[in-house]
Design brief:
Largest sheet: 6 strands, parallel
Mean pLDDT: 91
Number of strands: 6
Radius of gyration: 17 Å
Helix content: 25-40%
Bound molecules: zinc ion
Number of helices: 7
Strand order of the largest sheet: 2-1-5-3-6-4
Strand content: 5-15%
Distance between the termini: 21 Å
Structural class: alpha/beta
């Protein structure tokens, strides 16, 4: 199975002059489906939930190569996920086509303090004919700000500013500040706003499972498939 982020990763890898080594070194063989070591693979746990909303990931250059990238989890859960590599000087024609497709109502998801106030919205409009398309800027905080400022094709779109009630649960990159949600957490909040609540819960639960497997793999410890995190994901998947 291959999704938009997996394809972007393959394209980006093919362009690499030297092989990209994920932390952990060259010995670490990883599952092609989830990027974890095979003993900690989560492929069998991927939730299948219907969603009306779509996701459009604009990814900073090496973001698709990082095993800790959580945009990948969004592509696992949300069928209509699109992913594009971001560059200041060029834009994929397919991205422009997507943004102009009348079946979608695109929103750029970004904090309101960086946007002109007339563009800022806090809720998702429920159109009968247009499905929400959430544009997530996936990279470090500096990269995301640059993408926001330097993408002329986003400038006319509404900016959806989120007010998360909880701090980020993302523990995979230590430099990340607690107040910055990771891409999967942002995606889950967007799904909730779009009334794709079940998918939002599934993405959150799946993210927790991914984090658990990732950290346990790093510590070379086994995972407990019967712990609360796994039971929660199972319950949501069964309900779907
Ligand atoms: Zn896997």
């Amino acid at each position: 199975m291959s999704h938009a982020v997996a394809r972007l990763r393959a394209t980006r890898l093919a362009r690499s002059v030297k092989p990209f080594l994920a932390r952990g070194g060259p010995k670490g063989e990883r599952c092609a489906g989830c990027r974890l070591v095979p003993t900690h693979c989560i492929c069998a746990l991927r939730p299948v939930v219907p969603t009306r909303a779509g996701m459009c990931l604009l990814m900073a250059d090496i973001e698709p190569l990082k095993p800790s990238n959580t945009g990948w989890l969004i592509a696992d859960v949300v069928t209509d996920t699109f992913a594009f590599g971001w560059a200041r000087t060029e834009v994929a024609p397919e991205l422009l086509t997507l943004l102009n497709d009348p079946q979608w109502q695109p929103y750029v998801v970004f904090p309101e303090k960086f946007a002109e106030s007339h563009r800022v919205v806090h809720t998702v409009h429920h159109h009968a004919t247009k499905r929400p398309l959430f544009i997530l800027l996936d990279g470090t905080w500096d990269e995301a700000r640059k993408m926001f400022r330097k993408s002329p094709y986003l400038q006319h779109l509404p900016v959806l500013s989120l007010h998360p009630e909880q701090l980020s649960r993302y523990q995979l990159r230590r430099a990340q500040s607690d107040s910055h949600l990771c891409t999967a957490e942002v995606g889950a909040l967007c799904l909730n706003l779009a009334n794709d609540t079940q998918a939002g819960h599934a993405l959150n639960a799946y993210f927790d499972v991914f984090t658990e497997h990732y950290l346990k793999a790093k510590q070379q410890l086994p995972v407990d498939l019967g712990d609360d995190i796994h039971l929660q994901l199972q319950a949501i998947t069964r309900a779907a």
